[in-house]
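Q: I'm a student working through a structural biology exercise. My instructor gave each of us a protein and asked us to get a predicted structure, then write a short paragraph describing it. Mine is 3-isopropylmalate dehydrogenase. I'm not confident about reading structure output yet, so if you can add a plain explanation after the tokens, that would really help. Here is the sequence I was given:
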Amino acid sequence: MKIAILPGDGIGPEIVAQAVKVLNALDEQFELETAPVGGAGYEAAGHPLPEATLALAQAADAILFGAVGDWKYDTLERPLRPEQAILGLRKNLGLFANLRPAILYPELAGASTLKPEVVSGLDILIIRELTGDIYFGQPRGVRECPDGPFKGQREGFDTMRYAEGEIRRIAHVAFQAAQKRGKRLTSVDKANVLETFQFWKDIVGDVHKEYPDVALDHMYVDNAAMQLVRAPKKFDVIVTGNMFGDILSDAAAMLTGSIGMLPSASLDANNKGLYEPSHGSAPDIAGKGVANPLATILSCAMMLRYSLNRAGQADRIENAVKAVLAQGLRTPDIFEEGTTKVGTEQMGDAVVAALAK
Ligand code: IPM
Ligand code: MN
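A: Happy to help. First, here is the predicted structure for 3-isopropylmalate dehydrogenase. I'll explain a few features afterward.
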């Protein structure tokens, strides 16, 4: 089993180093190979997704990805910006199903900005379609505005579109995930305004016929954003498009106290996957040794479960993370009075130590 390790930029290398330590501490050894990506790819090879990095990702059984992006690349032309690396990996590898669990660990109930009674016991799964929608739809660009009161001026435009097969395959992933959990699925759309999402809603409704044991409801995205902060525990599994999923998953992440706790999996049709923390590269705290490595470590657990077929090892990592939280160890993002503040490395070491028990 070969794992491609793509640390990236900002805090990426620090947090990935901790996850690698955890992988190396497992009973079974995996072949790990590291390659530059994002700003680091640009520095090393003049492109955020160097050919050799893409080739490594294609050849690997799974990919561990840190984070990409730094302000210093903001002035580069779009195809050279670090974000293009993750978008390119998703598209090139066909990673259309993005699983973003939002789980509130009981020990962190006080770290949430919401009242404990609103969030305690929270366990929801957001499934975001990841290779379509306005993120990738063509045409796009800046052109001369063809009509209306601004005719003749420059205008920016993007295209929102979803093919039937694209909606069907993500709907199947979502219904099957719901079957393994609370058997409730909420499909989030904007069918009251957008043709694309009326179509989405119709197709998801049609796929539902194959999953009569799952309760499906449809919700507009604005309402979903409101319900996520009002009564998040009403949700079990949420399925939505690329852009709505991007936005809602950040909101859901914050319910759990820190985006530094949340892993994610991006899967293709054969469960090959890329695993990354749900947070970004946080250049403001990079190099300071304070970033929370738990989202990345938990991403390794998802990797073992979904792509490497090692559910037992995944459980071990998740239990080790629960153990260090129970010991009261906290990186600054989840620190509260009465707990022990630790740095990135200490947190990684503590997880490794807890694995041994
Ligand atoms: C995410 C990120 C990416 C996205 C960016 C970095 C392109 O925000 O993974 O949620 O928008 O998908
Ligand atoms: Mn995002």
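A: Here are two points you could use in your paragraph. The CA atoms of residues 18 and 345 lie 7 Å apart. The pocket of 3-isopropylmalic acid (ligand 1) is lined by residues 83, 86-87, 246 (CB under 6 Å). It's a good idea to check both against the output above yourself.
Q: Great, thank you!
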